Amino acid sequence: MGDIMKLPPMNALRAFEAVSRQGSVSKAADELCVSQGAVSQQLRNLEDYFGKELFQRTANSFSLTDEGEAFAAVVQQSLARIAAAASDIVREKSQHRIRISSPPTLSFKWLMPKLGEFYDAHPGVTVLLDESLELVTFKNDGFDGAVRFADGGFDNLNADLLIVLKIFAVASPAYLDKYGRPGSAVHPRGHHLIDHYYDSKSVSSQHVHWRDIVDGDLEDMQIEHLIYPDALQALTAAVHGQGIALVATYLCEEEVGNGNLETLGEQIFEYSNRYYFVTPKDARPSQALDDFRTWLIGISKAYRDD
After folding, report:
1. DSSP of 128-168, one letter per residue?
2. Which of 94, 110, 129 is the last residue of a domain?
């Protein structure tokens, strides 16, 4: 067995490295989240270990000795290599896990039900899906990618078009049996109309509502106007026969397919805003993220005119 490696106290080395690099005890203390006194004590411990001073101290100056400078170069390089190696290990462990931000309705109704297909194709990848209307910045927030509802114009982001939102009026067969079909979407006199308004005015302003479609005043047309706080609740209300809702194709395809809803006529509206998948341009390469992006573009192909 070889000789046991003899190393100076690690806490003392960390303090010495920080002071020698920062050139200041106070800055080193801030970096290490300890007091200046604690840093000074660690420097004294290191000097006691060597039996000689590594710093020249006067009333008005504080600097490394020649031996201190030589040792600082070795310590800084060594700890930097240890930190880099540790980062590589952490990255290797987490490179198959990606965190994605996505609007709640899109996540619950469209993306989450399809994730099983992605896991089947990429069993080693974990997708952490965060359902939120908050706009992620990718500035130390831990996100790798995001689905955004916007009209383009992304700075410092890679952006891939996913979904063009085409809006149809939908209602349940039970509602149509009871109230009949409206003559047209712009003149739905006597019908129950379902809208959704988000708490955020800025978010709601990005969505179309019946007042934007109907030709005239809703009250004058004897219309019962039902309002819900999001598109998913509005869709559910339509399924249960409460009225006619304005819904994007991606949101109602399952209900139309199984007969719980019927589309009333042709497309009513197409948003200028679309759903995009965005990632930071300066992000480190990630095979898991690349695989997710490719899969996402593929499953959304039917919702855009490529």
Report:
1. EEEE-SS----SSS--SEEEEEE-S--SSEEEEEEEEEEEE
2. 94
